[in-house]
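Researcher: Good morning. I'm working through a list of sequences from a screen, and I'd like to move beyond sequence-only analysis. For each chain I'm collecting a predicted structure so we can compare shapes side by side. This is the next one on the list. No need for commentary yet; just the structure.
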Amino acid sequence: MSIIGIAVWVILLLVSAIPLHLAVWLFGGKSSIFKALFVSLVIGFITAFIFALMAGFFGLIATILVFLLTMVIYREAFKLKWWKAFTVWLIQMVIFWCMSILLGLFGIGLINLSGVFSGLI
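Model: Good morning. Structure tokens for this chain:
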């Protein structure tokens, strides 16, 4: 993997971890940016693994399973109640999309970054 590929991967990881950290912080969970980075990385690997195993017909089941596992991981990692874990997930999505729109205004599209990343591997 090239240096550019590694840099893009780190940027994508940060862009996904910052909204998570902010959302957990809003609800008084125990978070640091490093914990949010680690949790984002773990959830990313789990998501990829589950969708690789359950592709096709089981897509809906895989989506539900990933969502439930995400809630469990948020609950345990950040010491949140179930409803707070769900709300953190919702707020994370809102913050992520707002960041995506802001980056898009400056010509930096997250989809473009992931496309560059996949071409560099």
